[in-house]
Amino acid sequence: METFEKISEEGKEKPINTQEKDLQYHFGGIMEELEYPTSRLIEQLKETIDAGEYDMLIGDDASGRIPTLVMKDIISSRMRVLHPDLTSEEDRNLLKTRFIASGRHNANKEQLIAFFRKIKSEIKKKALIVTEFMATGASMEQLAEILEQEHIPFDIASIASHSSKRSYQGGGYFLPSILGRRGLFIGSENASVPFLYNDSDLSGVQKKSRGQHLSAHAERPDSVNQERTGQIREDAHVLADRVLKEVWKNK
Question: H/E element holding 155?
Fold first, then answer.
C-alpha cells in the first residue's frame, strides 16, 4: 500500500512544492502527509466549490473534524474572492458546519436520523460530507442511506480510501451501492492517512457511547491537551492556505 509522500511509477503522486512556504506546521509529519491528497481532492471539487453548490459541511467522525475545518477554510476563502461584496452576516451564513459520529451496523442510526431531520431545513442547496478515511465504506453507506431517506441532497468527500472509488460505488463491497448514485470524491485511493481519531488531543473530541448505542456526535473527552488541539487547528488553517495557492494559483 503506497503512502502519499511516495511517487508513483507514472510520477503523478507527488507532494505539493514546499520550497516557498511562509507558514509552518506544528505537526509537520501529519499535515505534510495530508497535503497531496487534500490538494487532489480539492482539484476534483474546484468547479463545484466556485459554483457555490454547497451550503453545509458535515464532518464525519472525530478524525474528520480537522479535514472539515480545512474544507470550510477553503470554500469560505473562495466565496470571499468570488463575492467580495458579501456582508459579515452573509459570510457567516454562507456555509454552515455540523459534526457527527457516524457508526457502522446501525449502531447510532436512530440518533442520526433525528439529527438530520432537525437540520435538513437549513440545507437549501447541497451538503458535503467530509471524512478523513474510508475503509470498507460501511459507515458512509449507512449515512448515505439516511440522507436519501430524508431527501437531503449531498456529495461525499474523503481525503483517502483503503480501496478504489469504483469498489465503493458498486463493484466490490456493496452491490448495488447508494454511493454509486452520489458524488463521491476521494483524494487518494488505495492508500492510508494519519488517523487523527486515534489522538483525541488533536481533534479535541472522540466517539462516546450512551448505553448500547453510539451518540450521533463525537464528544469532548474527559481529559484533553488544549494546547495541542489549538495547534492542530492552526495547522488546519495553514494546510487550507497551501492548498488554495496550489489549486487556484493565487487567483
Answer: strand 154-161
Residue type, 169: Q
162 in any annotated domain: yes
Burial of 186 (C-beta count, 10 Å sphere; 0-12/13-18/19+): buried
Is 233 a domain residue? Answer: yes
**Rounded to whole angstroms, how far apart are CA atoms 45 and 48?**
5
- What's the pTM? 0.80
Of the chain, the end-to-end C-alpha distance in Å amounts to 35
pLDDT digits (tens, 9 = 90+) for 25-71: 988 888 888 999 999 999 999 999 999 999 999 998 666 788 999 99
Alpha helices in 136-217 (DSSP H): 138-149, 165-166, 200-203
Structural domain for 178, as ranges: 28-248
What's the one-letter identity of residue 8? S
